[in-house]
Automatic annotation (TrEMBL):
GO terms for cellular component: ribonucleoprotein complex; ribosome. Residues 14-41 form the Ribosomal protein L9 domain. Pfam families: Ribosomal_L9_C, Ribosomal_L9_N. HAMAP family: Ribosomal_bL9. The keyword Cytoplasm does not apply. This is Large ribosomal subunit protein bL9. Transmembrane segments: none annotated. The lineage of its organism: Bacteria, Bacillati, Actinomycetota, Actinomycetes, Actinomycetales. Belongs to the bacterial ribosomal protein bL9 family. Keywords: Ribonucleoprotein, Ribosomal protein, RNA-binding, rRNA-binding. The keyword Phosphoprotein does not apply. NCBIfam families: L9 (TIGR00158). The gene is rplI. Binds to the 23S rRNA. One of its GO terms (biological process) is translation.
Length: 149
């Protein structure tokens, strides 16, 4: 078993700064090569603790910023043009990258595609609702209109 400090949020494992114990293969083949975690040492623990304290201070300040961005994003309507058949079925599906690009084009807010949550695959034209996680406590509800090119 390997003791690691997470440097990024890892689903079903923990968030950045957490100390976790995982199997050696998971650490050696997945977490460490992708720089999602680093080996635990006392020095690394001190560095991570300092970084986490700074991050928490900024997070408290940024929750107000996230709420302001949420209000801006929810006020706008977004349109995404995708190739579609005559019956309105898309060739492929609406992706989070498509939504992030539409948000940036419409509002100028640069939104990371990994923050966009699409619950079910969207394979038809029409209006849909997707969510954007701006902060652990703040998410925006985006109204997206999918049209045929």
């Amino acid at each position: 078993m390997a003791k690691l400090i997470l440097t990024h949020d890892v689903p079903n494992l923990g968030s950045a700064g957490d100390v976790v114990v995982v199997k050696d293969g998971y650490a050696r083949n997945y977490l460490v090569p992708r720089r999602l975690a680093e080996r635990w040492t006392a020095g690394a623990q001190k560095q991570i603790d300092a970084a986490v304290a700074l991050h928490r201070k900024k997070a408290i300040e940024s929750i107000e910023d996230a709420r302001a961005v949420r209000d801006q994003l929810e006020a706008a309507k977004y349109t995404v043009a995708k190739r579609a058949s005559a019956t309105g079925n898309l060739y492929g599906a609406l992706s989070s990258a498509d939504v992030a690009a539409a948000v940036e084009a419409t509002t100028g807010v640069k939104l990371d595609r990994r923050k966009v949550v699409i619950e079910n695959a969207i394979k038809n034209t029409g209006s849909v609702v997707v969510f954007a996680n701006l902060h652990p406590e703040v998410s925006a509800r985006l109204n997206v209109n999918v049209v045929a090119e």
